[in-house]
Amino acid sequence: MALLEVKDLKVYFPIRGGIMGRIVGHVKAVDGISFSVNEGQTVGLVGESGSGKSTTGKAILGLVPLAGGSIYFNGEDITRYIGKNRSAYRKSVQMIFQDVHSSLNAKKRVLDIIAEPIRNFEKLTKEEERKRVDELLSIVGMSPENALKYPHEFSGGQRQRIGVARAIALKPKLIVADEPVSALDLSIQAQVLNYMKDVQEELGLSYLFISHDLGVVKHMCETLIIMHSSRFVEVGSREDIYQNPCHIYTRRLIASIPSTNPDLKEANEAHRNAINEEYKNQYNKYYAEGGSVYDLRLLNENNNTHFVAMP
Ligand SMILES: Nc1ncnc2c1ncn2[C@@H]1O[C@H](COP(=O)(O)OP(=O)(O)OP(=O)(O)O)[C@@H](O)[C@H]1O
Ligand SMILES: [Mg+2]
Q1: Which residues have C-beta atoms less than 6 Å from ligand 1?
Q2: Residue 192 belongs to some domain of the structure
Q3: Atom of ligand 1 nearest to the CA of 58
Q4: What is the CATH number of the domain that holds 195?
Q5: Are 45 and 177 in a shared domain?
Q6: Could you identify the atom of ligand 1 that is nearest to the CA of residue 64?
Q7: Measuring from atom 3 of ligand 1, which residue has the nearest CA?
Q8: Rounded distance, CA 184 to CA 176, Å?
Q9: Residue 13 Cα, ligand 1 centroid: separation in angstroms?
Q10: What's the CA angle centered on 210, arms 209 and 214, to 5 degrees?
Q11: Cβ neighbours of residue 51 under 8 Å, at least 6 residues apart?
Q12: CA–CA separation, 196 vs 168, rounded Å?
């Protein structure tokens, strides 16, 4: 049984108009997606800005209302707990938010930021709490004296690590990590990713790892989901996606990963242009009328991991 199972999830945001602020339509931010995450697994959710990645993550945390679908955690339907006491679930699933500048409360000390989830769920003495926070800081490579500082006293990479420490404070089973390293320099990205991997091994965690960059997720994720226009265009193992990308959108994403080899610069540029041409000229082969994304289907019978949204 999968740890997390999402079935036909839909999230629609109302668009209000006129002086009365009546609902005049909906933004279909997520429009019928299904996937699962197994224990200890890292699943990458990749797509361009506005494709619906953060909304998917927030839906799993119960932070946005669902227009349809269901979410199972350890086989239990958690959607019926939304708005009620879901404490066991809220403890097991945590989120690292995309915008680390606003997700860490600037007025609070690191101690209070990291201890907040602990205070909601456990009754610890001041000493016990401080000990836990120090342990959590050390897991993400930070020393105890940082507990008394405020978020503005840290670099982006350090703030991101504080976000990781807070997310793991309750020993969750699943972390939705929304672009956890996108705002960081390349060298620091690797550092934070390594901490995330170490923590994963130590706690047996699963990640839903959200990113707009297929280059970043390559070494983190065994399974990849490519999202476009509120739907999934391709799902597969790391090998399926990087070695045999089939949807034109996936191929565009892969072609846009910068090459580290300067000798290949021209060849890559030509490849990128060819794919962009194909995207323009053969759009109808990959998208249904009105640009909507087809349902996923198994690519071929010899491989039960690779799915693509093509007719
Ligand atoms: N609270 C909201 N109210 C109305 N529309 C929203 C809300 N949150 C998201 N949207 C819309 O839903 C769509 C998907 O947004 P989402 O934040 O999930 O994208 P994303 O894939 O995370 O993008 P990015 O890579 O820029 O973070 C966008 O069109 C966005 O404008
Ligand atoms: Mg986002």
Answers
A1: 13, 27, 29, 47, 49-55, 98, 212
A2: yes
A3: 18
A4: 3.40.50.300
A5: yes
A6: 1
A7: 13
A8: 18
A9: 9
A10: 95
A11: 227, 228, 229, 230
A12: 10
Give the domain extent around 286.
Answer: 245-311
Token pair 């879901």 is at which residue?
86
Nearest-ligand number for the alpha carbon of 51:
1
Quote the pTM value: 0.92
Q: What is the pLDDT of residues 266-299, one digit of tens each?
A: 888 899 999 999 988 888 899 998 889 999 999 9
For every residue of 9-24, DSSP letters joined together read: EEEEEEEEETTTTEEE
Residues 69 and 189 in one domain: yes
CA–CA separation, 178 and 208 (whole Å): 8
Atom of ligand 1 nearest to the CA of 54: 22
Nearest-CA residue for ligand 1 atom 16 is 52
Q: Which atom of ligand 1 is nearest to the CA of 11?
A: 12
Residues 171 and 299 in one domain: no
Strand partners, 224: 44, 236
158, 252: one domain: no
Q: What is the pLDDT of residues 69-93, one digit of tens each?
A: 999 999 999 887 765 555 678 889 9
Q: Which residue bears the tokens 């996923």? A: 296
The closest residue, in CA terms, to atom 29 on ligand 1 is 50
